[in-house]
Design brief:
The complex is a heterodimer. Chain A is α/β, with parallel strands linked by helices. Helices cover 19% and strands 37% of the residues of chain A. Chain A has two domains: 89 residues, Elongation Factor Tu (Ef-tu), domain 3; 147 residues, Rossmann fold, CATH 3.40.50. In chain A, the strands form three sheets. A seven-stranded mixed beta sheet of chain A has the order 10-9-8-7-11-12-15, sandwiched between helices. In chain A, helix 5 links the parallel strand 11 and strand 12. The model of chain A has no long low-confidence stretch (mean pLDDT 97). Chain B has one domain: Alpha-Beta Barrel (TIM Barrel). In chain B, helix 3 runs parallel beside helix 5, helix 5 packs parallel to helix 6 and helix 8 packs across helix 10. Chain B has ten helices and 16 strands. Helix content of chain B is 33%, strand content 21%. Classes of the chains: A alpha/beta, B alpha/beta. The interface between A and B is medium-sized, with 28 and 34 residues.
């Protein structure tokens, strides 16, 4: 965990409201599914923004972000060469395992899953990725996922890939004989609820990466808590990844 | 350059304390730097029993600040004494416990319990805006400030600092009430009650509807109130509210603060409190002072 001074290498618009920020610096190693607190280049925005680490090779690191409000709007104005600070790596990350792994993401929730898919593939797992988006023009990171694992792109409107939710695509594969030993998921709550239900009904260990508004990102301020096994736990420090059986959705 | 100060008989190597609720019990920030380098740590607000805090969204950003409604989530005073206090005491800086309650009897019992430990000082939180019972209710009217202070005072011999709410008619009256109740110091300001709303959903952003506003945006209010409190009482005043640099800290000392607390800045930058400490000598040199006593209260108003 370091507060790293970095320079912006690229801040690329993927589609309206979706950006990939690439920064360069002396970056510490990270585990799949960990996140970073990224400084916002605006005098009046004091809080950093939590983003999943899409990839990092120790020199360059990528963050996928959605423009939601003033802070992320300010981030879109970052240009190549701009300096900022990035606190990373934070949180527990996904368990990396061999065997058969199903990775399910929805929308911007795919961000922390690329490293998880890669980590499991490198550990010798048979990894299948199910990535769901609203429509073809809203897909994210699909080429990168395809480089590391068999990837099923799913769209709500059927404009690309599988027509339907990624849980339906996984169920179809399971009916055809794919029996995952573990399920890893990040995405909107309706998707995570469906994945929790699916995994638990089949007795498959399932892990969910949660998202909350955060303050410090290091476990001190207690503003990002969620109900875990009956208690308020810190998403930033105790999570963001929790076993689905402990998550109340 | 002398940055040492004495607060209620406790020697602090510098006047910079970490504010309650922004620093846990020091463990998280000790992973970034030796937290013993700051003057002291005020731990997370404690209640007699463990508390889960509020449900729903607990934080919202505002221009130059933030709102929170954590609602005093804490492990309870017994778990604090067993699991957290030894860590705080081992850091080599002042260990201050922050105590909150729902009734006067709660404050008495928690003060009594903490009095039997090695904490250096007790900060009484009568100003939390995010709990339904107690909290700020005790901090609004001078009469109840005096009553709860006197009640806790009877049960503790340790230095007792009363954390004052800014959501009051006249801060000077409340500071005097704390002094009359037997306080050894007052700290101010706690957060200002505020709200954030979402136009699109027509709902409050925070789960608790209202929250406590903190950060650089509250600094002018805090400076004004620290000055008023300083003029109203003889006991030391500890200033907080929006401090993120050494210059900010010195502004509070100029207004009369003996020590200061850094709060929200820690949330924005894990090194914030240390940076305030490290910047003191340079700022003091710019001002041509060698001891903080030369500046304390010296505002020409």
């Amino acid at each position: 965990m370091k507060d790293v001074p970095v320079k912006v290498a690229a801040n690329e618009k993927l589609y309206d409201g979706a950006y990939m920020l690439t920064v360069e610096g002396d970056l510490p190693p990270f585990s799949p599914g960990q996140f970073a607190m990224v400084e916002v280049p605006s005098g009046e925005r004091i809080l950093r923004r939590p983003f999943g680490i899409v990839y990092s090779d120790g020199r360059k690191c990528g963050f996928l972000y959605q423009v939601k409000g003033g802070g992320t709007r300010a981030l879109t104005r970052l240009k190549s060469g701009d300096e900022l600070k990035v606190l990373m790596p934070l949180g527990n990350g996904f368990p990396v395992s061999g065997g058969k792994v199903a990775v399910i993401g929805g929308g911007f929730g795919v961000a922390p899953l690329l490293s998880a898919a890669r980590g499991c593939a490198e550990a010798g797992a048979e990894v299948r990725v199910y990535a769901g988006f609203a429509a073809a023009e809203k897909t994210l990171l699909c080429d990168r996922f395809a480089e590391v694992a068999k990837t099923t792109v799913c769209t709500d409107d059927g404009s690309a890939g599988f027509h339907g939710f990624p849980t339906a695509a996984l169920e179809a594969d399971m009916a055809a004989g794919f029996k995952p030993d573990v399920v890893l998921c990040c995405g909107p709550e309706p998707l995570m609820r469906a994945v929790k239900r699916l995994g638990e009904s089949r007795g498959i260990p399932t892990y969910l990466s949660l998202e909350r508004r955060m303050g410090c990102g290091v476990g001190a301020c207690l503003t990002c808590t969620c109900r875990i096994a009956g208690h308020n736990k810190r998403v930033c420090k105790d999570g963001p990844v929790f076993p689905s059986t402990e998550v109340e959705l | 350059m002398n940055t040492e100060v004495t607060l209620c008989g406790i020697k602090l190597k510098n006047p910079v304390l970490a504010a309650s609720g922004t620093f846990g019990f020091g463990r998280e920030y000790n992973e970034f730097y030796d937290v013993g380098r700051i003057g002291g740590i005020v731990g997370k607000g404690l209640t007699l029993e463990p508390r889960e805090g509020n449900d729903g969204t607990r934080i919202a950003e505002t221009p130059s600040g933030m709102l929170n409604c954590v609602g005093l989530q804490n492990p309870g005073v017994e778990a604090f004494i067993k699991d957290e206090l030894p860590f705080m005491l081992g850091r080599g800086c002042a260990a201050i416990a922050n105590a909150a309650g729902s009734t006067v009897a709660d404050y008495e019992r928690i003060a009594e319990r903490l009095d039997g430990t090695d904490v250096d000082m007790i900060e009484l939180n009568i100003s939390c805006p995010n709990v339904k019972n107690g909290g700020m209710a005790f901090g609004v009217l001078p009469k109840s400030v005096e009553e709860v202070t006197a009640a806790a005072r009877k049960h503790c011999r340790k230095p007792l600092m009363i954390k004052l709410s800014p959501n009051v008619a006249d801060i000077a009256d409340n500071a005097r009430a704390a002094e009359a109740g037997g306080a050894d110091a007052v700290s101010l300001i706690n957060t200002l009650t505020g709200m954030a709303v979402d136009l699109a959903t027509r709902r409050p952003v925070l789960g608790n509807v209202t929250g406590g506003l903190s950060g650089p945006c509250v600094k002018p209010v805090a400076l004004r109130m620290v000055r008023q409190a300083y003029k109203a009482v003889k006991i030391p005043v500890v200033g907080l509210g929006g401090i993120s640099t050494a210059a900010d800290a010195l502004e509070f000392i100029l207004c009369g603060a003996t020590a200061v607390q850094v709060g929200t800045a820690n949330i924005a930058d894990p090194f914030a409190a240390l940076r305030v400490v490290e910047g003191l000598a340079e700022e003091m040199e710019k001002l041509g002072i060698k001891d903080l006593g030369e500046l304390r209260g010296a505002l020409a108003d």
